[in-house]
Amino acid sequence: MKILLVEDDKTIASGLEYSLQQDGFPTVLCHDVASAKKVLTDDIDQFALCMFDLQLPDGSGYELCKMVKERRDIPVIFLTVIDDEVNVVMGLDMGADDYITKPFRVRELLSRIKTVLRRYQKPPYTISVIDIGNVRINTLEGKVHKNGAEISLTALEYRLLLIFGSHIGQVLTRNQLLEQIWDVAGDFVNDNTLTVYIKRLREKLEDDPGHPVLIKTIRGLGYKAGD
């Protein structure tokens, strides 16, 4: 999941490149429009997301955004020092997916990147029925049954259960769960809230919530659904 970063301020660029790579995003760095256009022309398919500074020494991020959107439907985030509504609206009208105004916190930028990428992901729940022990999830109807009886779940409980259902047997860390459940709809779920929702799911689905077998705690690592 490679990112193209185009930023002419080399200090900012190197810091961003390091932070992105530390967070698991391989990065290609360019400092001007010309070099970015060459990279995009040579192999645009290698990129999952592009980040463009608006003001570049030989042009603007607008040019690059237009080029990308004409060739592929991949997300674009603008980096700008211009906190100006007209420029922001212009970028969004051209197809940009988000913008962030400098100076910004790296953690905020990483959060925005992950949120934008999720919008472009194909629906992960392509299987119409998922079974976790004696619990069945019907993804087409959005219903959950235990031993044939329908179980009432809130939207967020259902979403959390779907995440477990699509990763049966896989250990999921708390951070992985938080990233997937905090989506573009603006549902804010912190670490404490996640604990509460897992507890609620167990109370509704487990035969013995005190000794869960459907959603197991893997000490020091996270949680695992099923075997």
Question: In brief, what are we looking at here?
Answer:
This is Transcriptional regulator. Helices cover 41% and strands 24% of the residues.
Structural class: alpha/beta
Q: CATH topology of the largest domain, what is it called? A: Rossmann fold
How many structural domains? 2
Overall morphology:
elongated
Main beta sheet, described? 5 strands, parallel
Distance between the amino and carboxyl termini:
29 Å
In the CATH hierarchy, what is the superfamily of the largest domain? Response regulator
Q: Kindly provide the radius of gyration, computed on alpha-carbon positions and rounded to a whole number of angstroms.
A: 21 Å
Domain OmpR/PhoB-type: 127-227
DNA-binding region: 127-227
Modified residues (4-aspartylphosphate): 53
InterPro entries: CheY-like_superfamily, OmpR/PhoB-type_DNA-bd, Sig_transdc_resp-reg_C-effctor, Sig_transdc_resp-reg_receiver, WalR-like, WH-like_DNA-bd_sf
